[in-house]
Design a protein that fits this description.
2 strands; mainly alpha; 5 helices
């Protein structure tokens, strides 16, 4: 998924910074700052797909924010990705709504034709 996003951004000449969170893990402070940009805070960063490798519940609502942060620092697989930070907004996944928001943010308003 991340490689698709990187290729899509590159093809459209949209400038981005890529970070491999499995090689350069996120700190507690970074996670707190990102969580502040979402409606449900750190709970929005909780990745259900990563829970099966750690044996945690798919719904992180039963966990306290500090618990989630500690788990994510130790297990980056519990962080939703790809993750796009646009000013004070955070977008997750690489679906049509995310691509539309990225295009609007970059100043493009129509899908390029190939």
């Amino acid at each position: 998924m991340c490689s698709d996003a990187k290729q899509w951004l590159t093809d459209r000449k949209i400038t981005f910074t890529f970070r491999e969170i499995f090689q350069q893990q996120m700190s507690r402070d970074e996670l707190v700052a990102l969580g502040a940009k979402t409606p449900a805070g750190i709970h929005d960063l909780y990745a259900p797909k990563g829970t099966r490798t750690v044996g945690l519940p798919k719904d992180g609502r039963g966990l306290l924010p500090e618990q989630i942060i500690s788990l994510q620092v130790a297990n980056p697989d519990l962080i939703r990705y790809p993750l796009f930070e646009l000013d004070n907004r955070l977008l997750f996944g690489f679906h049509r709504a995310t691509r539309d928001a990225l295009m609007a943010f970059s100043g493009e308003h129509e899908w390029p034709t190939r």
